[in-house]
Design brief:
Elements lengths: L1 H36 L9 E2 L6 E2 L18 E3 L5 E3 H4 L3 E7 L6 H15 L6 E7 L7 H10 L7 E4 L3 H11 L4 H4 L12 E5 L5 E6 L3 H16 L1
Parallel strand pairs: 5-6, 6-7
Antiparallel strand pairs: 1-2, 3-4, 5-8, 8-9
Amino acid sequence: MANSMALSVATTVCRFLKSSIWLLVISGLYLISCHNTKPDEADTMPFYNTANFDAEWIKPDEARYDSIHAIAPFWLTNQAGHTITKDSLDGHIYVANFFFSICPSICPKMMGNLKTLQTTFADSAQIRLVSFSVMPWADSVSQLRKYGELRGINPAKWHLLTGPKETIYTLGRTSYFAEKGLGLQKNTTEFLHTESMLLIDQKGRIRGIYNATQKPDVERVTDDIYTLLKE
């Protein structure tokens, strides 16, 4: 009787162990399957369609792909006196920010960090930097040229832009969303001042937002540029 009970217990334990092993195997296969069917977002960059900066991964075969937010057309002048437009930047990946030459606070730190990007991508013809002056009445072409020369800014790589205040402020707030949602509540009489830098892809679409005063964000945008170059 005792032997019979022991055998029954042993049989039950064996069945339990076998069922547990199969459960683990099935669970493992399920997790692998889930991992393989989930879009690999680590190898792609999201799009940002609103000032809320909600990341959206949108595939080219989706209907909404053709209506992704893009930077509006503009015509401004850089420190070399050349006209720079949205079309002249199409086909390039660029980082945009907003500054003014006599800014004593955040601008020197922002421009210093952007200088790091200029150095990192010095040999990449596809990468540009674009800095919009938020004091265009003071930042003339000659002023921006002096500013650029003093800081080692390469005008072939990095555009310092000036032009009509209304154009720059409207671009900053409604195209680049530089002040996020708060900027949409302001008009062109209110000063535009932001630490944001935006990553723009070859088709003029926003792919990332960062704090231009922070070194870790410079490292992040650097990695993201490399990711965009692979798309």
